[in-house]
Design a protein that fits this description.
291 residues; mainly alpha; Cd81 Antigen, Extracellular Domain, Chain: A; two-stranded antiparallel ribbon; 2 strands; 1% strand
């Protein structure tokens, strides 16, 4: 229980008695509680997506399964915000210290990744390319990967990783003459160029990419630029907005969380000292102030 009934957002003492700011407690609790709900929702969505598939993927497919990173990130958010939420509510120093430590560690990792992305840009490009190739390989075998690849190709108007022939890495679109698939040597419909002037009542040719991998005039019907370059170009063009978004919604809330948790730790420690000296009872009420 705090000594002050109002809302004090700074470290303050009243009559020599240290106060635990109810305003800071409520801000930290509410922010962590809302983020905790987000983490819980992410876990639920990820688990639901896993269950809906009704079959388990091999270890090689975990890297391209969108549900996996959603579950992992949701669990991390759920755990960390739980400590921040309960620590602020119960004025628990250990939980607040753990929360602030994780926030500082996350900030260091984020800044490190940002510098690494600049310094090791070629390595990041190579890793991203491998992930895209893995996604092409498992296309048609995973509904989530299907949707993700189709969205990327339609959004960035691209096809394949480097070129459209990358679709030969997929067993259904492979150009091998022994491939029995009806989509042999083709590309998915998401690679096809869309006629902007077409009427919504027109019949859509979803087989427009069949047999076009080795066609000399394929660029008339499908996108000929790879998705790796298209995506990196989009990131380069929108780097300012991406950085602004990450700083405003990522770094600044984390820094504020660290600052508020550290202030609360100081205030709680000061009250503990007064309790040990017999000036306050455990409830936080004044027992003896002296004359």
């Amino acid at each position: 229980m705090c000594l002050q009934r109002g809302c004090t957002c700074t470290l303050k003492y009243a009559g020599g008695i240290p106060l635990v700011s109810p305003c800071l407690k409520n801000i930290l609790f509410l922010a962590n509680f809302l983020t905790w709900l987000v983490g819980f929702t992410m876990i639920g969505i990820g688990v639901y997506a896993k269950v809906e598939k009704q079959y388990s993927h091999g270890l090689s497919e975990l890297a391209v399964d969108p549900a996996t990173p959603i579950i992992i990130f949701g669990c991390l958010v759920f755990l960390v915000t739980f400590f921040g939420c309960v620590g602020a509510l119960r004025e628990n120093i250990c939980m607040l210290k753990f929360f602030s430590f994780v926030m500082v560690f996350a900030l260091v990792v984020e800044v490190g990744c940002a510098f690494a992305a600049v310094i090791l840009s070629d390595s990041y490009r190579e890793s991203l390319g491998k992930l895209m190739y893995k996604s092409i390989e498992h296309y048609r075998n995973d509904a989530d990967v299907n949707d993700l690849v189709d969205w990327m190709q339609e959004e960035f108007k691209c096809c394949g990783v480097i070129e459209l022939k990358d679709w030969s890495y997929n067993e259904y679109f492979n150009c091998d003459i022994n491939n029995p698939s009806l989509e042999r040597c083709g590309v998915p419909y998401s690679c096809c160029k869309v006629d902007e002037d077409a009427n919504i009542t027109d019949v859509i040719n979803t087989l427009c990419g069949i047999g076009l991998q080795n066609s000399e005039d394929s660029n008339l019907y499908i996108y000929d630029q790879g998705c790796l370059d298209s995506f990196l170009l989009w990131v380069h063009d929108h780097l300012f907005y991406i950085s602004f978004f990450l700083v405003v919604l990522g770094c600044i809330p984390q820094i504020l969380g660290v600052m508020i948790s550290r202030i609360l730790i100081i205030q709680i420690n000061d009250q503990y000292r007064f309790i040990q000296l017999g000036l306050l009872v455990d409830s936080g009420d004044i027992e003896y102030l002296g004359s």
